[in-house]
Amino acid sequence: MTLLSLVLVSLLTSLGVWQLQRADAKARLIAHFEQNSAQPVLQLNATDFTDPRLINRLGAVTGQFRDTPVILLNNQLLGGRLGFHRFALFQLAGSDRHLLVNRGWVPANAEGKPLLGDPALRPRDQELRGMLVAAPRPGMRLGELRYRADAPLLELPYLDLAWLRQVLAVDLQPLVLLQDARIIEHYRQQRQATWLNPQRHRGYALMWFSLALALGVIYLVTNLKRTDPG
Question: Are 104 and 180 in contact (CB under 8 A)?
Fold first, then answer.
């Protein structure tokens, strides 16, 4: 019983510590997001996009869209409706580097096809503004990525920047620029839902610590009774 009690108290204490660590990690994520998204717009043309401090940073970049297939990420929900996220390649001015730009969400029709209108982009010099984010990571990589150079649309079940870099033969940077204001707000809402509230994890930690304490008290009381000569 002593060994079992020690194991259970250690396990419950470890769970409490783990929840405190999760709370601290989520608090840091929230602070990082709020700090970066509140900073002035950063000029991105000479930026090192491998710097993780750029994630969730508002930025501006000059260059032009490339005449490449419109990239569509399927099965994307917005406001409870099914649709696609529409991406395009943007070449930075005076450079061979490219950014993948999320130009917004488009709905799907009854057949599950995108309602794009005119998807063509005319290459011209311009400035884009938006939020830099990490490329979305799929929970499971279901479906096959296929590329046809002559196809006007490239519909994908998930994003793989390394694969896009190879098939499009461009120097594609590791971050994505969210250009559409609705997508930026949707991203913020998703982050809030993902991070939840660190206080919730602290509540779980209190619960595990309380169980460990209760078990320790029960063990001590039980054993004191056994040793009581009366």
Answer: yes
Residue whose pair of structure tokens reads 């793989």 in the numeric block? 160
Q: pTM of the entire structure? A: 0.67
Per-residue CA distances from 212 to 12, 193, 201, 204, 225 (Å)? 5, 30, 17, 13, 20
Question: In Å, how far are 51, 67, 219 from 95, measured between CA atoms?
Answer: 18, 16, 70
Q: Which residue has the tokens 């994520």?
A: 29
45: CB partners within 8 A, 6+ apart = 61, 62, 63, 92, 93, 94, 95
The Cα–Cα gap between 92 and 47 comes to: 11
Which whole-number Å values give the CA distances from 63 to 66, 97, 129, 218, in the listed order?
10, 10, 12, 69
Question: What confidence tens digit (pLDDT) does each residue in 91-111 have?
Answer: 999 899 999 999 888 888 877
Instruction: Encode burial over 128-148: b for 16+ CB neighbours within 10 A, e otherwise.
Output: bebbbbebeeeeeeeeeeeee
Tokens, residue 208 = 């595990």
List pLDDT tens digits, range 128-157: 888 888 887 765 666 778 877 777 788 888
> Among 159, 189, 191, which Cα is nearest to 175's?
159
Tell me the Ramachandran region of residue 177: left when phi exceeds 0, alpha when psi lies from -120 to 50, beta otherwise. beta
- Half-sphere exposure of residue 150: CA atoms within 13 angstroms, side-chain side: 0
> Nearest Cα to 76, choosing from 165, 170, 158, 141?
158
Cβ contact 59:43 at 8 Å: yes
Rounded (10°) angle between helices 2-37 and 181-195: 160
